[in-house]
Amino acid sequence: MRDRSRWVCATVRRLALLGCVVLLALLCAAPPAAARISAGQTGFRVLDYDARLDLRRPGTLHGRVTVTLVVTGRLPPVLIFDAAGLRIERVSSHSGAPLPFRTDGAHLRLPSSRLRPVAKRLRLDFRYSATAGRGLRWRGEQISAMFHTRRWLVCVDQPAARATLTLRLLVPRALTAIAVGEPRGRSDARPNGSLYTFRLSTPHSPYLYGFAVGRFRRVVLRRGGRRYLVASVRHREVELRRVAKRLPEMTAFFEAKAGVALPGKRFSLVVLEGAAAQELAQMAFVGARYVDLLLRDPHEDWLLAHELAHQWWGNRVTNRTWSHFWLHEGLVTFMVAAYKEQRWGRAAYEREIQLFRRRYRTIVSLGKDRPLVHDRWRLSSEMGGPLPYSKGALILHLLREKLGTPRFWRALRRFTRRFQGKLVVTADFRRALERELGAPLAAFFRRHVFGTGLAGEERK
Ligand SMILES: [Zn+2]
Fold this sequence. Notes:
CATH topology of the largest domain: Neutral Protease, domain 2
Oligomer: single chain
Shape: globular
Bound molecules: zinc ion
Number of helices: 12
CATH architecture of the largest domain: Orthogonal Bundle
C-alpha cells in the first residue's frame, strides 16, 4: 500500500498525464463547424469507407477513399462531408465520371443533382492529400492518426454515422503498420513500400478509426480466446509482456460488469512517443511516459483500464451526439475506480472517488460547473474540461449508493447488453436504472445530470 507522500506524488503525475485525456475532452467537446454542419443530414447514410493512404513521404498523406452510401429518402440538394484541412483533388462517381464539388477548408459540399444511385446505393470516390496536424502526427519515423478523422479521411465525422472500414496503408518498407480492425495481409510489391490491409467489419464511429506506423517491437498474448497485442518503439519485449499480462484480468472484470464479451475478442495497445490517451476500435494509444510509470508502479493502471473500458462504453454503447459525452467518460472513469476496488481493495476505490471529488470541487470553485448534458455545442472552455469525467463518475458513485451495489451492477449490465452496438442518450441509461430500481429517477437526473451542483459533494 502506498504511503501518503507517494500517493500525492502519484496523483500529481497522474494529473499531468490526465492532461492529454482532458485535452481530448476539450477537443471533442468543441468540434469545429465542419463536424456540426455534417450532423443531422437526412436522406442518406454512410455504410462503408474503403481507404488507401500512401504514407511513404514524411509529413504528407496521399489518400483515396471510396465511400458507399445508402439512400434512405430524398437526397438533400447538397451532401456535406467533413474534410478539415484536406486538399481535395478529385471527386468522382463509381463510373469514374468527375463530379463538381466545393470546399471551404473544413468541409466538402457535393451537389446531389448529378448523383445516380444504383439499387439505393451510391459509391463516391475522393482523392485528396493531408499534412501533419491535429489528428495526424509524424514524430520521427512514427506516424499516428486518431480521433480527428476528418483531418485524414473524407468522412461524415459524427458519432452516430457509424460505418465499416477497409484501411490500406502504404508505408516505408522498414516500418510496421498497426490499425483498427483485423489485419488482412501485407504486400511488399510496391516501390519503397509495404501495403498493409485492415478490415473493420463492425460499424464504428469515425472518431474511433486510426492507425500507427513505426519500428514497433510487439508481443501477442492469447488468453481465453482473446488476443492482446502490445507494441512500442522503445520498450523491451519483457516490459511489453508485463503490460500485456494485465489485460486479461481487466478484460474479465469489464466483461463480467458489461455482460458482453470483449468486442471483436481482440485488443491492441500501441505505445506512442509523446502524449497519447485515445481509445480506438478494438485498440488504444497510450503515451510512452505512462507505460514507464505503469512499469514502475503496477498500481498506476488507471489509463490502461480507462482505455480498455471504452471498448464497451463509448465504442459499442455510443452516445448519439456529443451532448451525451458524459455517458462515455463518466462511466469509464467510474469503471476504473470499480476495477481498482476489485484489484487493489476498497481503499483504492475510495481514493479514486476522493480524486473525482477534489477535481469536481476545483471545477466548482472556478465557476465552471454546468449540466452534463448540453443540447448544443458551445465553446470548449465552457465544457468544463474534466467535468464529464469527474462529475460523471461521481454521479455513477451516487447511483451505486442509491440503488445498492448488486442492483446497480445488474442495471449497468442490463444497459450494456441492451445497447451494445447501438446509439444512446442519457434517457436510455436512466430507464435501464429505473427498471432495476422499480422507481423513477427523473428527479435525480434532473438535479445531477441536467442541473448544476451535486448532492452532498460540495460539503465533503
Ligand atoms: Zn476516455
